[in-house]
Amino acid sequence: MEFPELTVLSRQMAKEIVGKRISEVEVANPKCLNMPLEQFQKTVVGKATRSVENRGKWLFIKLDSDHVLLFNPGMGADVIHFKPGIKLPEKYQIKFILDDKSGFTIRVWWFCYLHLVHANKLGEHKLTARLGVTPLDKRFTLDYFKQLLNKKRGNIKTFLLDQKNLAGIGNVYIQDILFDARLHPNRIISSLTNTEIEALYKSIGSVLNESIELGGLAYEKDFYGNKGGYGVKQFKIAYKPGQPCPTCQTTIQKIKTGSTSSFICPNCQPLDK
Ligand SMILES: [Zn+2]
After folding, report:
1. pLDDT digits (tens, 9 = 90+) for 189-220
2. d(CA 122, CA 136)
3. What distance in angstroms lies between residue 157's CA and the mean position of ligand 1's atoms?
4. N or C: which end of the chain has fewer CB within 10 A?
5. Which run of H or E residues covers position 194?
């Protein structure tokens, strides 16, 4: 799950849960909590949800007690809505029941975080306090992006994946974003021209928005259990090694960049300019 999937999820969740009160919560994997289960339940039950937003890989669910529920799906999770009387998914670790008997279950693939933090203490929550703005935030303007890049060392891919710079690009979408902007992942930030930075800024918006409009990745489920429409067909070069580049027909390569893999068209994204 990356930013587009979490954006789709948080918008759908907002529609279904905002204004409703939490009447019951079950957590079968209390290790994901940042407090004892009983204390968590006691604080959360009876509270109404005010808003649902997402930043990076985190959902922020604001409650009317000025507490915020922070959820991170780790390697992945199904967060699925249910209506009263509807059969629940077979497997899940976490269940929230709301005052109208609707709610949602969470099935986690590997691990997750479900933290409860007072709004005043968000700045002390180590895992989220330093998250950058999201690529869809109004504050994320071209000037803001230029400022962010100013005087930064290192290569552009590492920079974009660092959630402290920008909270929202992971190793799936970065491939097509860099391809769309015709930038090699190992390009050094200080070597980027103004035109290249502008192209990159546009690509970030267009690639992420295209996926959000299609409901996110085809192999991730949304709040209603439906899979997204952004799949291999929509990928430009991501995860398509050996296939022809959609622009110039050169064979797409898979290369190692630091600790991650990258897919590039060596013709459209040359390292040396
Ligand atoms: Zn090409």
Report:
1. 999 999 999 999 999 999 999 999 999 998 89
2. 21
3. 18
4. C
5. helix 194-213
